């Protein structure tokens, strides 16, 4: 099992037969530094950075960071979508390579702070175990919603089911035929369609089989939203709870906020160094 981070000149990841991989491609190097420092303070060593350019490869060599040099070619469908999204879309073919070797993989973006060993908190009862962009139980884990169409008279009321997307920047995969097929399908689509990789990731996981369409049939677990926490949940809700109601996070993803470095540093001070005023200067939303 290994943790992996896919990065270009500023991106990082962890590695084992359990593997962790990191993926934010063209984030500034200082974000990578804070990300890697949060990992290096922990005892687990099964992590690596997937370096997709020579500059990052050389940086990893210089700093003694576990890394795998794996250049990628951005397809035309991802051109001009922004370096971050374009390169992030390439991670799925790399993940397939790890899965084909029999390694379970925890993939992580670089705008993530690691507070505890994530491998101690994975349940591993499903093919995919991922972080949600949801911010409470109903948005993350799912809820029934009502539909009211008065034109239908007696049958005006119906029900549906919804939840927010899984984030394609933090998820664990069990190495098996289903997850390999999932990675192959996503990789094919991002190479041939002009789509955001997170949209494709969620469509392939959750779209129901119908007609001639077949599903990859992967089973899914949503990570605990207070342990594998996104930055909206942290800044809008959790930091306002009484201290005795705040769980110690495992990983914190600054996906909802652009001022990533400042919030990453403050979150480390708050949860690791015990400075309970470290988050006070930040608004709920972006600055």
Automatic annotation (TrEMBL):
One GO location term (cellular component): Golgi membrane
Chief place of localization: Golgi
InterPro entries: Nucl-diP-sugar_transferase, Nucleotide-diphossugar_trans, RRA1/2/3
Alphabetical keyword list: Cell wall biogenesis/degradation, Glycosyltransferase, Golgi apparatus, Signal-anchor, Transferase, Transmembrane
Domain of life: Eukaryota
One Pfam family named in its UniProt record: Nucleotid_trans
Enzyme class: transferase
GO biological process, any: cell wall organization
Ranges where the Nucleotide-diphospho-sugar transferase domain occurs: 45-264
Family designation: Belongs to the glycosyltransferase 77 family.
Enzyme Commission number(s): 2.4.2.-
Annotated compartments: Golgi apparatus membrane
GO molecular function per UniProt: glycosyltransferase activity
This protein's name: Glycosyltransferase
Membrane topology according to the record: Single-pass type II membrane protein
């Amino acid at each position: 099992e290994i943790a992996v981070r896919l990065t270009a000149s500023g991106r990082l990841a962890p590695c084992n037969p359990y593997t962790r991989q990191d993926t934010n491609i063209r984030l500034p190097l200082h974000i990578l530094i804070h990300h890697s420092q949060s990992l290096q303070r922990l005892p687990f060593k099964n992590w690596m950075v997937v370096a997709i350019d020579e500059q990052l490869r050389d940086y990893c060599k210089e700093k003694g960071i576990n890394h795998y040099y794996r250049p990628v070619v951005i397809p035309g469908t991802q051109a001009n979508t922004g370096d971050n999204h374009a390169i992030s879309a390439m991670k799925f073919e790399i993940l397939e390579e790890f899965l084909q070797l029999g390694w379970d993989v925890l993939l992580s973006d670089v705008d993530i702070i690691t507070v505890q060993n994530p491998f101690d908190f994975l349940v591993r009862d499903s093919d995919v175990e991922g972080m949600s962009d949801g911010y409470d139980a109903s948005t993350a884990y799912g809820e029934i919603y009502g539909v009211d169409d008065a034109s239908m008279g007696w049958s005006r009321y119906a029900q549906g089911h919804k939840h927010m997307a899984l984030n394609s920047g933090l998820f664990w995969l069990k190495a098996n035929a289903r997850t390999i097929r999932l990675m192959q399908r996503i990789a094919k689509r991002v190479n041939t369609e002009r789509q955001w990789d997170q949209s494709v990731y969620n469509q392939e996981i959750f779209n129901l089989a119908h007609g001639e369409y077949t599903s990859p049939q992967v089973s899914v677990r949503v990570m605990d939203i207070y342990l594998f926490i996104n930055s909206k949940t942290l800044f809008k809700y959790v930091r306002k709870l009484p201290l005795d109601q705040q769980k110690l996070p495992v990983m914190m993803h600054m996906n909802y906020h652009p001022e990533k470095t400042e919030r990453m540093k403050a979150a480390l001070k708050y949860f690791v160094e015990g400075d309970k005023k470290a988050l006070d200067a930040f608004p709920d939303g972006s600055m």
